[in-house]
Amino acid sequence: MWIIAGYITVDEDERDRYVQAHRDLVVRARKAPGCLDVAITADPVDPRRVDNFELWDSWDSVEAWRPQAHAPETGVTVNDVDVTAYEVAGTRPPF
Q1: Best exposed site among 30, 40, 45, 85 by fewest CB in 10 Å?
Q2: What is the spatial order of strands in the sheet that 35-42 belongs to?
Q3: Domains and CATH numbers, the chain
Q4: Per-residue DSSP letters for 3-52?
Q5: What pLDDT score does 20 carry?
Q6: Weakly modelled stretches of the chain, pLDDT under 50
Q7: Which pLDDT score is estimated for 55?
């Protein structure tokens, strides 16, 4: 299992437009084979930050999705990117 998580920053007046532009990508990704969850969301604290979270059953599923992801051309300048892929060794309920 793989988690791809982190954030990007954009100008705060462009953040909501950036998130909305990715709506179709999120809908399609959630239907992709091996995708367990995807979210591209506005951060509730930092008005410039867009949070990214992906959960996949395998790296093969990630690689199969990427060529068909077709990220939208938003015209929004991305200022910073801090996104990392994590291979999950195990899972358990958090509570």
Answers
A1: 45
A2: 35-42, 49-56, 2-10, 78-87
A3: 2-87 (3.30.70.100)
A4: EEEEEEEE-TTTHHHHHHHTHHHHHHHHHSTTEEEEEEEE-SS-TTEEEE
A5: 97
A6: none
A7: 98
